[in-house]
Amino acid sequence: MTTFSVNHAEYQATNGYFCYAYDSCSVTLVKDYPWWKADLQKTYFVSALIVKPRDDNVDFKDVEIRFGNSPTISQNPIFSTHTGATPPAGTVLSFEPPNPMEGRYLSFQSTTTTVAISICEVQIIEA
């Protein structure tokens, strides 16, 4: 289970406050392969995600995004990935699968070790 930093709980990435402020972000503790997951409470068809990482984007690198109906992250299909260099500061990222996907659970997981994941806001775009 991923543990979040004090005052940086997982719900802060879905509170509707699209910000750059670190204090309003969801931040995991630094660990091997940390993850963030949201239960959308019902099934949606999703065509895109808009993600606002922390302003300096330091904690959003080599991330695998999964979306599906299983509460177990690894059992859901890959929605998209973000690999390589850390995006420039202030970047808002957009992710689109080849076709809209159906699911209830959205997750972000680092594919590297000894890191954290910081997400300030996630906007889910229905198909």
CATH class: Mainly Beta
Average predicted confidence as pLDDT: 83
Q: Approximately how much beta-strand content do the residues carry?
A: 35-45%
CATH superfamily: Galactose-binding domain-like
**Helix and strand element order:** EEEEEEE
Number of strands: 7
Question: Main sheet, how many strands, which sense, barrel?
Answer: 7 strands, antiparallel
Radius of gyration: 13 Å
Structural description of this entry:
The mean pLDDT is 83. It is built from no helices and seven strands. Strands 1, 2, 3, 4, 5, 6 and 7 form a seven-stranded antiparallel β-sheet that branches. Helices cover 0% and strands 43% of the residues. The protein is mostly beta strands and 127 residues long. The protein has a single domain, classed as Jelly Rolls (Sandwich), CATH 2.60.120. It has strands spanning 26-27, 35-53, 63-68, 78-82, 93-95, 101-110, 118-126. It starts with 25 loop residues before the first strand and ends with a strand. 27% of the residues are buried.
Short description:
With 127 residues, this protein is mainly β.
What descriptors fit this protein?
Jelly Rolls; mainly beta; seven-stranded antiparallel beta sheet; 127 residues; 7 strands; single chain; globular
